[in-house]
Amino acid sequence: WLNTSLWLKYKLYFYIIDVYLPTFCLNLAYFKNINEEKATLRGVNRVTDVEISLDANYLKIVPPMDSSLLVSGVNHAYFMNNEFIFTYTYKSRMEAKLFEGLFKVDGALIIDVNSESFISNLLPLIKNNITIDQEFYQKYPVPDIKINSYFSYVDSKVTLKPKIACKEIDRNSPYIKQLLDGYLTTVVNYGLIKENKAYVLSSIEDQYKFLTSDLSPIKAFGEVFFDEDMKTLKAKKSKRTSISVSYDVGLLDFRFENEDLSPEELAQLLKAYHQKKKFIKLKDNTILEITEDAAKEMDDFLEDFNISISELTKPVRKPLNYLLKLVSGQDTNVSMDDEVIKMIKKLQNYKNANYELSDSIKKDLREYQIDAFKWLKTLSSFNFGGILADDMGLGKTLEVISFLSSDKTTKPSLIVCPMSLVYNWENECDKWHLDCPFKLILGASEEREAMIKGINPNERALFITSYDSLRRDVNLYDVEFRFVIADEAQFIKNQFAQKSEAIKSLKSDMNFALTGTPIENGLADLWSIFDYLMPGYLSDYSHFKSRYESLIAHDDIEALDTLKKRVAPFILRRTKKDVLSDLPDKSEEYYYCKMETKQRQIYDSYVSKLKEDIQSGGNNILALLTRLRQICITPELILQEQFDNTKINLAADLIRSSIEGGHRILVFSQFTQGFPILSRELDKMDIKHFILDGTTKAKTRMDMVQEFNSNTDIKVFIISLKAGGTGLNLTGADMVIHMDPWWNSSAELQATDRAYRLGQTKNVSVIKLICKDTIEEKVIKLQAMKRELAESVVASDQTKQVKLTTQDILNLLE
């Protein structure tokens, strides 16, 4: 039934199933046992090409494999020979038209090409897809219709006006319609929009894309012409900006050069980048694509170096402290002159510097302390500030005193510290023989005001005050200091705190900071300290937050690495582990505090009672001596009222800063009545701690020892000197604080040995808290001068009379 003679009978049927037949045919099983008169169908094949040619008279379509056209469908043509059906998919709608109205001549399907309709309408559409004999061209010239494109640049718009290069055309011709449709589709693909009788590109982004596009699709329709203004329009990508840095009279001179841009155009580019624009147009009609990497690199550099965009149009000069940003950066497009490179090397090799240091101090400095001295001197030689962040117990105070002693500039300097450390600074300056006058700015407001107004701006001297006093007195300071030094600089970590604002408002040549914890709560702490050291070095806080803090909070390693490199030259941090070979196994320091007014009055009254008792030959000497020692800790130990406890506060401050430095602490005192007071202060800071005194049961005692040594969450162990001074192994601690000097120095040593013993792998710091101008200070001196006397002041049995001369006891009270 598939005999070719029957094809007309089934033509309508094949048209209906034309869309589905290819799928059907491809899946058709192998035909067997179909025995028709003239054909045995064996299967269905798909063909991808059919030969089409044109001679002088006919358009020929040669069927595949000696087949005949079975049917011409909507989407496919079907051919058949004696064994197979062939399916052919049309490549275009025009090709489908060729198969209509064909008749067979000599095995080929042909169409008469003599008609004018074929020459004008069909032939131009298919001429590029068939083989045309030269004889045909001679007989029938193929019409060649072009559309020329005329581009102009008017009123900041690219304008296109197309023209058909033919005098007479039939716009109703299918060929002309298809030609125009194809041209307009091509034009729209370039972003051109019809406007009146032309097509335009208004945005510079579309214009840039047009200028950088391949115009071959438009040129395929005809010639392309640009008017003179259009020829001036160019497209480029922005390039990296080169930066040169030179030294000029104490400042850094920055110059910015871009081979394609003037300084004004560079500023224009960066403003556009801030506005999230991707293109700008320059005065010479160049449309510049803003390259993201190059623009961001330049923008980051300007922000890091605190340079505004408006400054690019004039010479840019910045302080020398920006020098170390160049050292820490990855800016390969930055070039530096020889003088700048020389200064950088000096900063990097500070340990090799030679600075004069007095023999009286040098003999007591360890090698790492000499390095710190050289570091401070090198920074100050450039008028830079810095953070001395050595671990507690490494001698930051001595390092600073040696630095201050070496600077002979005739200007005053100021140290600001917590109130609990003011007298410690005074004592250390006296101990190490600071070679200039030093004075505390303390007392009533009238006294402080007089001291501040008495500061000679042209005299070399050191003044020491507390953060709280400075906060109250800041408006009185109109002198310019040589150095301002912030001890325990974490006190100014909050940029909005009055203490921070006060110290940042002081005038000075240079600022330094001492802290073992420059970052306590977050990176904002570090920014605030640097804002005091060198305002602007880390830019303003909003930039710092977006550039570093927020990124680092989301684990941006690159931002963290960049920040480290920026701040590293200005931070000197050594832990005890770093300088282990240069340290003794055990170090000892004294920290001093001073009594408050009411506390002093109570103390003095008991001194008078003791003197009277001595003069009268009384027997209350031991009890009165004990009362004096208790008052030195806090009068709360003998009176039922609350006081401002300077020694308790000092102990709490030291414990807090020590924990921040990674230490664990044993606190010893003879007077257990003070334990609840100290415990209360530790609770306020959420510091976990144990207390051991004479009431602690043996089992509980050992449980606490084991827990302390194994659980690093327990930071502090407060221990009675009598109950826990012996028999305990507490090597989990590496710091010991003695709240009150014990008359018998061997008892102190035994207590210290709870941490400093076999099994201890760290250096142990021993700190003794001393109340100035009291019996405690005298005992410390006597321990050094007359150890036998110190050990005889009080026996282990407090009821036993002490064998002391009257003069010995009076010496303790002086």
UniProtKB/TrEMBL annotation:
Helicase C-terminal domain segment(s): 642-810
Coiled coil: none
Matching Pfam families: Helicase_C, SNF2-rel_dom, SNF2_assoc
Domain Helicase ATP-binding, residue spans: 377-536
Alphabetical keyword list: ATP-binding, Helicase, Hydrolase, Membrane, Nucleotide-binding, Transmembrane, Transmembrane helix
Transmembrane domains' residue ranges: 12-31
InterPro entries linked: Helicase_ATP-bd (IPR014001), Helicase_C-like (IPR001650), Helicase_SWF/SNF/SWI_bac (IPR013663), P-loop_NTPase (IPR027417), SNF2-like_sf (IPR038718), SNF2/RAD54-like_C (IPR049730), SNF2_N (IPR000330), SNF2_RAD54_helicase_repair (IPR050496)
MF terms (GO), sorted A to Z: ATP binding; DNA translocase activity; helicase activity; hydrolase activity
Signal sequence, start to end: none
Keyword Hydrolase: yes
Record flagged with keyword Transport: no
PANTHER family given in the database record: DNA EXCISION REPAIR PROTEIN ERCC-6-RELATED (PTHR45629:SF7), SNF2/RAD54 FAMILY MEMBER (PTHR45629)
Protein name: SNF2 family DNA or RNA helicase
Originating organism: Anaeroplasma bactoclasticum
Source taxonomy: Bacteria, Bacillati, Mycoplasmatota, Mollicutes, Anaeroplasmatales
